[in-house]
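We emphasize that the prediction below concerns an isolated chain of 259 residues; any contacts that depend on oligomerization or on bound cofactors are therefore not represented. The input was used exactly as deposited, without trimming of termini.
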Amino acid sequence: MKITPELLNDRELTFTLKIDENFIVSYDFTVIETVESTQWRVKNFYANQKKVDTTYDIPQKDFINNLNINAVGIDLGMTKSCVGVNRTNGIELVAIDGSERQLPSYVSFKEKDPICGQLVINQLESYAKSTVFDIKRIIGRNFYEIQINSGWPFEVIKNDMDKPQLRVQSYEGSIVRHPEEISAILLKHVKQKVEEFQGKIMDEAVITVPAGYNENQKIATHVAADLAGFKTVHLLAEPIAASIAYFVDRPIPSNFNML
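Result of the prediction step, given as a token string:
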């Protein structure tokens, strides 16, 4: 593989050079995706999409009950998140926080690996400065568009591009993270729990977003899903998702328009 500027494009490159006892030289390199490189790739994806009026079909029973679909439906909520999968008896919500089917959208960096969910809330008083929440109020926005909440225990700072970043206390000191990385932690947790439940890789996701999200907020959500390991990502406006869910088990009148 040839290393080109296009290949790197804000990615991190790890280069390893080895010399064995016979003085034979070998090398290897690994290109690591970063938030910036993922943003570049996702922005190009959206830029190449033709803007057309979108229509949605109500899923039929044989589709809903199809276990061969490796996709999940995720409600990435402001305060709580949940996920549904195809089962033989229809769509089923998966327990993703112990036995609970709703995951509080809280992330903590108090341990070596980030943790999320109710456990973070339970420890909030002791580890507030290690905790991030309300990420949907921040992700995809310009720094100056954010209304800083005095109740946030984390610090919102501005990078050189006027984009927000979050400074929190981790087990090893102060760290800075992109908003997309916080959402990615939640989505990665959801993905892991769903795959344990389904017993297979689930690499396609439909994620609901507020109807008022602008292009940057949608791209940022897509970036977070990419970082979480989803290969194919579809964003669906929350009112559309609610309408589809309503009519799954109900007859649709003839010549019916859903506004």
